[in-house]
Design goal:
It contains six helices and eight strands, in the order ααβββαβββαβαβα. It is α/β, with parallel strands linked by helices. The strands form two sheets. It has a six-stranded mixed beta sheet, with helices on both faces. Strands 2-6 form a two-stranded antiparallel sheet. α5 crosses α6.
């Protein structure tokens, strides 16, 4: 039955008026799309940059330290790339060493945030920009990356202060972009397709972390 109707629709002749109306609608739609695209891309014109404030952070509890521009690319998220994911990392080193390599243009990688063992949060890349943190272009474009100071084989590095501070940060990111608080949208680096990383490792307590994120997500702002 569906096939028969499809055949009739395919054979139906379209009048000139319908063509003109359809063309006008298509043109209007194309104009809207073009305007939308221009609104996203205007600042990529040579000599033009999207207005930004020096040292501005996206999370009120963070301190700004800029990563090398070689370790991220300028964007206008979520206007050009929707953000629907948080990727959890562990630095495999100290906080200071993570900051140092993220400032190194030869490193070619950096995350948006680093959470120290004592709960201090440093932001190194704006959330509107694409950080090279996940080892997968599509995941980089759609996610915010959070590094945590420590080593994957040292559970003592994963402190209460770190879990709690990181959970509050993730909760705010999820609220800002309407990201579901679940394990499909809050993932470990190891879960990114094509990666050879193992962080945050077997000692990362996902049950505890997700409980903290949910609690922070529903707490009064």
């Amino acid at each position: 039955m569906g096939q028969g109707n499809a055949s009739k629709d395919g054979d139906r002749k379209v009048g000139r008026r319908a063509v003109l109306i359809g063309g006008a609608v298509a043109a209007a739609g194309s104009a809207v799309l073009a305007r939308d695209e221009l609104s996203r891309l205007w600042w990529r014109t040579p000599g033009v940059q999207k207005p930004r404030k020096e040292g501005e952070v996206d999370y009120a509890g963070a301190r700004w330290v800029a990563a090398s521009e070689a370790n991220w690319r300028r964007a206008d998220r979520p206007a050009d790339y929707g953000i629907d994911m948080v990727v959890v990392h562990v630095t495999q080193g100290s906080f200071a060493s993570a900051v140092k390599v993220f400032q190194d243009p030869e490193h070619k990688a950096a995350a948006h945030y680093i959470v120290r063992k004592d709960g201090h949060i440093t932001q190194m890349i704006r959330e509107l920009d694409v950080a090279y943190h996940a080892g997968n272009r599509s995941y980089n474009e759609r996610s915010v990356g959070i590094e945590h100071e420590g080593f994957v084989e040292r559970p003592e590095d994963l402190t209460d202060a770190m879990y709690e501070a990181s959970a509050r940060l993730t909760a705010r990111i999820c609220a800002r972009y309407d990201i579901p608080v679940d394990r499909e949208h809050i993932i470990g680096h190891v879960e990114v397709p094509g990666t050879d990383h193992t962080d945050p490792g077997r000692h990362w307590d996902w049950g505890r972390y997700m409980k903290l994120v949910r609690a922070a997500r529903t707490a009064p702002a």
